[in-house]
Amino acid sequence: MLSVLADRTYRHLFAAQVIALVGTGLMTVALGLLAFRIAGENAGAVLGTALAIKMIAYVMVAPVVGGLAGRLPRRAFLVSMDVTRAAVAVALPFIDRVWQVYLLIFVLQSASAAFTPTFQATIPDVLPDEHAYTRALSLSRLAYDLESLLSPTLAAALLTLVTFNWLFLGTVIGFFCSAALVVSVSIPQPPARQARGFYDDTTRGMRIYLGTPRLRGLLALNLSVAAAGSMVFVNTVVLVKGMMAGGDGDVALALACFGGGSMIAALLLPRLLDRLPDRRIMLVSAAMLAGVLIVFTVAFWSRPANEPLKYAVLATWTLLGVGYSAVLTPSGRLLRRSASAADRPAVFAAQFALSHVCWLITYPLAGWLGATAGLTTTLFALASLTLAGAALASTVWPAADLDVVAHVHPDLSTEHPHIRDDNGAHAHPVVINDLHPRWP
Description:
The structure is a single chain. Helix content is about 75%, strand content about 0%. The protein has helices at about 10-40, 45-70, 75-90, 100-125, 130-160, 165-185, 200-210, 215-245, 250-275, 280-300, 310-330, 330-335, 345-370, 375-395; strands spanning about 420, 425. A two-stranded antiparallel sheet has the order 1-2. The longest helix is centred in the N-terminal third of the chain and has 32 residues, at about 10-40.
């Protein structure tokens, strides 16, 4: 897996990603403490609203920026988004009004919604070989998981030495280091494509995404992942501390099991993806997410009174982490195959936005159901939603899915790559309108 770091450009971009992630993790801790300083006991409501603003920014901004990013120099665009995020982090310690928090969070997350899919769309151009790209995806997944485990620990260590406002300085340093690493390499610019109208450019990624069978399947799988993940991220503390009388350490241990399972999958996936089709791995993993949740729901519902089920929670969360990573990690391969180089930023932006729409649905569902109907009902509802997403994906994503399908659309160029079957053999181009319908 580490062999891809031999590529200097990718090595610098991966380092930029890791440093920016650590800075963002520090800011997450600092933001919670800032909210408490400003709003006191209402800090939870402030943070909840800030998270909602984050999701809204992701859903609204990413498709628009993704459609326009191809017109701009990619390296300058990425650097400008890092600088924008650093500027927001500089301003945050000095604010004293709740509305100022909301405004700055919207600016910050809008910049992230512009940066992240553009960055993700850059990696396939830096590593055009699919073997190398698959390993880069696994490394990226590991970076996210390690950040979620290490950033809170680093923040806690720093807070023993400095006040929380200094954590924002760590965030600023992270974003500036990220920008410097991006500047230090030459980033491939996607092929220029014909400029169209604003509407056509900003909706292009969505139209490609929703017009491609495998990506419609990916959208259903995003729903499965969001449903299972929301149970973990929203209700772990309620389950462990509220229902099982555990402590803070037990909550941390459960979340660490989830992150550990995700890292195990990320380490194993490159070799599995060399041998098995993406579709099989992703659908089986989504079905596993549903099955694990259903089994745990039954065990939780039928447990004897006051039975803590501690070890069942740890095992369940580990398996959920495995399934979560096994569905998410290969998604970049599907996006890469489903768009030309010029359209990749728009398609990655569409994935970014639509996946967050799923989280925007499941986060509140997990929270509201848990608070009003109880955890047993919540587990059953989220398990059902996870299973429904997996079933829908298996229906809309054709089993005989060619690597690249030649197709004809009235508003697009006919310069499409040849078809490769699952074994990499070349096949004759064909027009398949029933599997790849004409875009609106």
